Amino acid sequence: MNALSKHRVSRLWMLSLVVGSLLGVAAIKATAAQGTQQPNATPPPAVDKPNTPKSAGDPESNQVTVRKPDIHVAPFLVDVNLVVINVTVTDPFDRIVTGLEQNNFQVYDEKVEQKIASFSTEDAPISVGLIFDSSGSMSDKIQKSKEAALQFFKTSNPQDEFMLINFSDRPNLITGFTSKFENIQDRLLFVKAGGRTALLDAIYLGLSEMKKATTNRRALLVISDGGDNHSRYTENDIKRAVRESDVQIYAVGIFEPLSSRARTPEEAGGPGLLADLAEVSGGRMFSVEDANELPDIAEKISIELRNQYVIGYHPSNLVRDGRWRRIKVKLDPPRGLPPLQVYARTGYYAPTQ
């Protein structure tokens, strides 16, 4: 092969290398472009995102959080048929019995056993109205009565609230509901004895003021030395009002010993009146002959109010006839316990609409 032929071959070889390189680069670019577009590529697996709260203005949020009841057209009708009973249980020595379970109780509505829907023993906040007798016959007992009231307040919980009504010729609302019992203590110091006894009017005012209470548990504590002799309301009026309310009445009757009693018929009927009102409401009446016992009795009542069983049920009788229906709470205590005493309200008025 001459020099000219060798030169031509060398040029052709170099040209083929250049063309091959250009074709390789073009192929690489085409492949890269296809990899970028991936029109038929399988999408990556979906990842569950955590649920985040929706804003209040989101329409979907309103649909989720706002829901009409299926049956009741207004929220306050949901529990309109729930009857709630506060129950106290004591032993033969009048000591509070705690630790019983739901299966130890049976509730009867007009002699028909009911299914218990709720059961609680918690020390829930309570609203208490003190009905304080400052009539003339209390002059030698009023100081100990004040001490009893203060002892009751001292054993309260911070969430409790209290009001004070004193009465002689007529009832007087000293202070409305407050959680600061120091305010009531200051007002109580200036109460003086004098006048007649409008006990029934005072209880009626107490029941009316109870409608302003902010807790679900409500009670009146009556401290008095006798019956009524100066009220506009009658015993039947007050008994009806007590039955219509959801308020327990606890009464401390300060009575002279039988040997030294010289009382009017109204005053002689005082113990029976207070006992009847307490029984209907599910509360209790404590008779005291020695005024020095008053602070201990007040503390006992305070402890009792904080150790009650709260039982709720839906009456099987749904007739809205407005009639009085009797309630009976019975016990099936665990073995080994002595006979126990049950205190609970005796009935309620059925709704009318």
Report on this model:
Helices cover 32% and strands 23% of the residues. By secondary structure, the protein is an alpha/beta fold. The protein folds into 2 domains: 75-121 and 310-349, no CATH class; 126-306, von Willebrand factor, type A domain (Rossmann fold, 3-Layer(aba) Sandwich). The strands form 3 sheets. The protein has a 6-stranded mixed sheet, with helices on both faces. It has a 4-stranded antiparallel sheet with strand order 4-11-1-13, with no helix packed on it. A 4-stranded antiparallel sheet has the order 3-2-12-14, with no helix packed on it. A hairpin with a 2-residue loop joins strand 2 (105-109) and strand 3. It is globular and about 50 Å long. The relative contact order is 0.17. The model is unreliable at 2-79 (pLDDT under 50).
Q: What is the CATH level 1 assignment of the largest domain?
A: Alpha Beta
**Adjacency order of strands in the biggest sheet:** 7-6-5-8-9-10
Q: From the alpha carbons, calculate the radius of gyration and give it in angstroms.
A: 40 Å
- Summed up, the helix count is 9
Whole-number total of structural domains = 2
At the fourth level of CATH, the homologous superfamily of the largest domain is von Willebrand factor, type A domain
CATH topology assignment of the largest domain: Rossmann fold
For the largest beta-sheet, the strand count, sense and barrel status come to: 6 strands, mixed
Write the H/E string, N to C: HHEEEEEHEEHHEHEHHEHEEEE
Outline the low-pLDDT stretches: 2-79
CATH architecture of the largest domain: 3-Layer(aba) Sandwich
Which class of secondary structure composition applies to the elements?
alpha/beta
